[in-house]
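tokens incoming
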């Protein structure tokens, strides 16, 4: 059984390239609830989909020790709605990476709504996704109302977004916030606002 292979006393849980499926993620979600020692979980490169992430969401919702979650490079993750809803109330998670998934405008909308509620997240990696103009605009507007956030990485989106109002909203959020603190927004591997 999958759970028999886990070291429950470790602080870091890395399962890269293990071909995990939804059933595995259901077990991991339950373990996240019961295990209050894991600080970092990385499930990158596993072909996870939205259903698998939904199972993880239930665990994250009830966990108060996890500070880093990496679910990047899973191309079938597009909207992450349940995980974003769970993170709306989670205060321990500080870093979330969806790098190299297929996050769409709908996914960006869900993330933007989460950013308005979450008070603990300080770093978000959305690089190499499929976020369009509308999604970037929503993220920018959400960041404008988020004061504890340090950095968001959005490089590798559609080239047509380069001069769009979505990126302008991200720049404005960073510049407005910079009056009292430091915030970084990275687009196409360069910092567009600090």
């Amino acid at each position: 059984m999958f759970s028999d292979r886990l070291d429950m006393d470790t602080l870091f849980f890395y399962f890269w390239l293990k071909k995990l499926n939804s059933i595995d993620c259901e077990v991991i979600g339950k373990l996240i609830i019961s295990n209050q020692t894991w600080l970092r979980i990385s499930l990158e490169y596993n072909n996870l989909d939205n259903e698998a992430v939904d199972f993880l969401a239930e665990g994250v919702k009830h966990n108060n020790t996890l500070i880093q979650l990496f679910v990047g490079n899973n191309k079938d993750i597009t909207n992450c709605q349940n995980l974003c809803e769970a993170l709306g109330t989670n205060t321990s998670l500080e870093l979330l990476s969806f790098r190299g998934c297929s996050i769409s405008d709908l996914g960006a909308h869900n993330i933007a709504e989460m950013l308005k509620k979450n008070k603990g997240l300080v770093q978000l990696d959305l690089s190499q996704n499929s976020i369009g103009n509308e999604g970037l605009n929503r993220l920018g507007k959400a960041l404008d109302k988020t004061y504890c956030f340090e950095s968001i990485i959005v490089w590798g989106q559609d080239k047509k977004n380069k001069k769009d109002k979505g990126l302008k909203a991200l720049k404005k959020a960073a510049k407005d916030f910079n009056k009292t603190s430091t915030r970084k927004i990275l687009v196409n591997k360069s910092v567009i606002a600090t």
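note: The CA atoms of residues 151 and 184 lie 5 Å apart.
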